[in-house]
């Protein structure tokens, strides 16, 4: 029988008298040798490619089978016991850790991976979803504030316009231009977050070995084209501006950018501003810089980028913002609501309807307010509404705040009364909220 594949060869040399009908018997023609060698090479290739249907034995270095399931059985490997089945999430994690030693060994894998707080815009203590004018220093949602050269150029609101957020999100920050503003050369408008130095100290900015960071987010705008964002140090002395593109109007798009770490400058690693992340909403010609390079801070935008404030009614919506160490953006880190809220409380806490205080002297009432989270630094205090005093179930008068003193975990409020009360008398307080602020 003609030997058409390697499995038909014999371990006894004298029995190998042909290969695929080519005569190899003793005394065969020389031309047969050449043909036989070529045929042998073809059969070896067929075996290597798996096209012969033959299985290489385990003893011979093979799997003893020609299919994956049969090979696992022959080798005694059961999925879930001896080997891990393919898992798309594990594949994603493997990709996210491409520039780290291993993802599972990294504390970022299961810890505070996203350095942005309230990146999904869920928490809005100050406004409870109401619209605000986007002036400099205004917080439309917790931890996010404006930095502008002019006032009253746009409004901002959580879930402005009531569009459907990206899949997996329920909230976004919506910004709407109030006019077709003509930018002056030195104008700038941005929404951003100041990140505490303790939370970015490991990035090593300002020294050799500074880590690359990946910034990822979902954006939707009525405008298309080039937009810019910036990373800046606390003193606005060092900065890096980069760009991203919005391809389709009024459509949620996922964007990622990577920024090499800055090896120069001063970057705080304490409870001050460690790093600032800003999304540009408009920059005058004098605020445009060369993108994708670290240098002395010179401006917020790049030539040719969109300016939201320059188009009346233009919208800029954003959510799912993440800043993390590494050059690969991983899926948005979803912390539970209670933990995200406590993270926000470190910088601002709205305390509602605290109940009891005491008469300090005949015209002064003091009320202590315990806090749910220790503040970044000694806070400032303001009332969102006047207090109503209640003695023995009788509402006596409405008072405005006359003074306060604050510590990182406790504040004391003072009120001056027009009535005369007995020192030490207990007073109940109704219908009030106090905002305790220790923002960066």
Structure description:
The structure is a single chain. The radius of gyration is 34 Å and the shape is elongated. The protein has a seven-stranded antiparallel sheet with strand order 20-19-23-16-17-22-21, with no helix packed on it. 10% of the residues lie in helices and 32% in strands. It has 440 residues and is mainly beta. It folds into three domains: 6-49, no CATH class; 132-343, Galactose-binding domain-like (Jelly Rolls, Sandwich), CATH 2.60.120; 346-437, Sandwich (Immunoglobulin-like), CATH 2.60.40.
Write the layout of secondary structure elements.
Blueprint: E1 18-19, E2 22-23, H1 30-49, H2 68-75, H3 88-96, E3 132-133, E4 145-148, E5 154-158, E6 173-177, E7 188-196, E8 213-221, E9 225-232, E10 238-246, E11 253-259, E12 273-283, E13 295-296, E14 315-325, H4 337-345, E15 348-352, E16 356-361, E17 364-370, E18 380-383, E19 387-391, E20 394-399, E21 401-407, E22 410-416, E23 426-430, E24 433-437
List keywords for this structure.
440 residues; mainly beta; Jelly Rolls; Immunoglobulin-like; 3 domains; seven-stranded antiparallel β-sheet; six-stranded antiparallel β-sheet
């Amino acid at each position: 029988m003609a030997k058409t594949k390697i499995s038909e060869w014999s371990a006894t040399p004298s029995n190998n008298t042909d290969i695929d009908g080519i005569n190899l018997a003793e005394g065969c023609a020389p031309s047969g040798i050449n043909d036989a060698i070529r045929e042998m090479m073809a059969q070896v290739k067929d075996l290597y490619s798996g096209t012969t249907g033959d299985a290489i034995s385990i003893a011979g270095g093979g799997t003893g089978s020609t299919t994956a399931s049969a090979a696992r059985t022959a080798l005694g490997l059961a999925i879930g016991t001896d080997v891990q089945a393919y898992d798309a999430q594990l594949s994603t994690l493997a990709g996210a850790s491409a520039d780290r030693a291993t993802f599972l060994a990294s504390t970022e894998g299961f810890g505070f991976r996203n350095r942005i707080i309230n990146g999904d815009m869920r928490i809005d203590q100050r406004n409870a979803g109401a619209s605000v004018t986007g002036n400099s220093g205004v917080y439309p949602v917790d931890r996010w504030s404006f930095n502008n050269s002019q006032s009253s150029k746009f409004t901002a609101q959580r879930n402005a316009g009531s569009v459907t957020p990206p899949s997996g999100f329920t909230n976004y920050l919506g910004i709407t231009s109030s006019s077709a503003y003509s930018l002056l050369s030195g104008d700038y408008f941005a929404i951003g977050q100041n990140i505490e130095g303790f939370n970015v100290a490991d990035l090593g900015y300002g020294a050799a070995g500074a880590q690359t960071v990946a910034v990822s987010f979902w954006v939707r705008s009525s405008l298309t084209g080039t937009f810019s964002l910036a990373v800046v140090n606390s003193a606005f002395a060092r900065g890096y501006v980069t760009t991203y593109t919005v391809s389709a109007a009024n459509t949620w798009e996922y964007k990622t950018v990577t920024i090499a770490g800055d090896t120069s400058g001063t970057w705080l690693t304490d409870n001050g501003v460690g790093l600032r992340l800003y999304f540009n909403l408009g920059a005058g010609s004098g605020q445009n810089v060369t993108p994708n390079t670290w240098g002395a801070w010179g401006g917020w935008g790049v030539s040719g980028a969109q300016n939201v404030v320059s188009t009346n009614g233009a919208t800029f919506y954003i959510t799912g913002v993440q800043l993390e160490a590494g050059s690969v953006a991983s899926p948005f880190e979803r912390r539970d609501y209670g933990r995200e809220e406590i993270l926000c409380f470190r910088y601002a806490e709205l305390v509602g309807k605290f109940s009891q205080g005491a008469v300090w002297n005949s015209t002064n009432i003091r009320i202590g307010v315990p806090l749910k989270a220790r503040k970044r630094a000694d806070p400032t205090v303001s009332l969102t509404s006047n207090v109503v005093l209640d003695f023995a179930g009788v509402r006596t008068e409405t008072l405005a705040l006359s003074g306060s003193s604050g510590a990182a975990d406790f504040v004391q409020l003072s009120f001056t009364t027009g009535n005369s009360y007995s020192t030490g008398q207990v007073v109940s307080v109704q219908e009030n909220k106090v905002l305790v602020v220790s923002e960066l």
